[in-house]
Design a protein that fits this description.
Blueprint lengths: L4 E3 L2 E4 L5 H17 L16 E6 L2 E5 L2 E5 L13 H10 L8 E7 L5 E4 L11 E7 L1 E6 L9 E5 L4 E4 L8 E7 L11 E7 L5
Antiparallel strand pairs: 1-2, 2-11, 3-6, 4-5, 6-13, 7-12, 8-11, 8-13, 9-10, 9-12
Bound molecules: succinic acid (SIN) and manganese (II) ion.
Manganese (II) ion binds next to loops.
């Protein structure tokens, strides 16, 4: 395994996923999106999020007026498709744990999409890392602190980069400030896909 860049406890494996695997993963995700179409999530306060979202795995992450949660079905009522093998292999290589992820959240960023600073804290247990895989256009990823506010550091994530948020970074705030639309040729109509693999313990 290559040595990751460590920034505020976030481990960044630059270029971990080779271009052929990225292409296969994108075609796998196209199948996932046929079975579980991308939707525009709405926050509990009624704001429409700028990313489009779907999931794969035993559980998917959803948000609507009744709150944020993991659930076994897509908003249209169907079960979620399986997590693509390439994503599970990446998890096995970098997560440092033998347990399989329960959820692969799939976010699509178009030209204007962003993700405000937040913590991933709906998983029930924080003993497991969250593994993020970037595909397509570059994204300016901001890494902060467990507490709100304070200093942050930013890094452009490129297609094939993998970030592990574990240990001290597991509950750190993070977000995406902007996308360099058209910077990658992986996706035919540009934009960025981010996968986050998570263990969910709903006790
Ligand atoms: C997320 O925090 O859910 C997404 C992070 C990213 O898009 O890189
Ligand atoms: Mn997150």
């Amino acid at each position: 395994m290559p040595t990751p860049l460590t920034i505020r406890g976030f481990k960044v494996y630059q270029g971990l996923v080779d271009s052929q695997s990225q292409e296969v993963l994108v075609s796998n995700l196209r199948e996932v999106a046929k079975a579980a179409p991308f939707f525009h999530p709405v926050t509990p306060s009624g704001k429409s999020m700028s990313v489009r979202m779907t999931s794969a795995g035993r559980l998917g992450w959803v948000t609507d007026q009744s709150g944020y949660r993991y659930q076994a079905t897509h908003p249209d009522g169907a079960g979620w498709p399986a997590i693509p093998d390439i994503a599970r292999d990446i998890w096995a290589r970098v997560s440092g744990v033998t347990r399989e992820p329960d959820c692969c959240l799939i976010n699509y960023y178009d030209e204007t999409a962003r993700m405000g600073m937040h913590q991933d804290k709906g998983e029930g247990s924080f003993d497991w890392p969250v593994v993020s895989i970037s595909l397509g256009d570059e994204a300016l990823f901001r890494m902060g602190n467990v507490a709100r506010g304070g200093k942050t550091e930013s890094l452009w994530l490129r297609s094939g980069d993998v970030v592990v948020m574990g240990g001290e970074a597991r509950l750190a705030h993070h977000g995406v400030d902007r996308i360099r639309f058209g910077s990658s040729r992986l996706l035919p109509k540009w934009g960025r896909i981010n996968l986050t693999l998570r263990v969910v313990d709903q006790g």
